[in-house]
Amino acid sequence: MNSPLKLYRQILRAHRLLPNEFRLIGDMYVKQEFRLFKAVTNPDQLSAFNTEWNTYLKTLYLQLGAETQSQHGETASFSDKSDTLGSANQGSLKLGKNLDDEIIQTISHDRAEQLLELNEAVSSVYKNSE
Fold this sequence. Notes:
This protein has helices spanning 4-15, 20-37, 43-64, 81-85, 101-106, 109-129. By secondary structure, the chain is an all-alpha fold. The chain has two domains: 4-95, no CATH class; 98-130, no CATH class.
């Protein structure tokens, strides 16, 4: 499993391959989450945090068409950014995924509010770019 600092850096590096508006939102969110989690000492919470962010990173690599990671979790190589994202403007790049129903059912009120705020921020980016 990656150390939190290494994982943080890998996520920010992967975000460089995102369209600018996604990168800005993603970077802000990741920085905020990792800052908040800095003081956590509970091993179970740390493990869950690491697992979820590693899953996010792997999903992001897959969606961006990145080549397979090495066994140490480092990126072996990426496809050329312009090739990978060149079709993003035509809407063929699919990023993100829908939440599973079971996750939605168990989500806390605070987390639901946070997701709504994130949704509003992303929606405003799309409105401003049209």
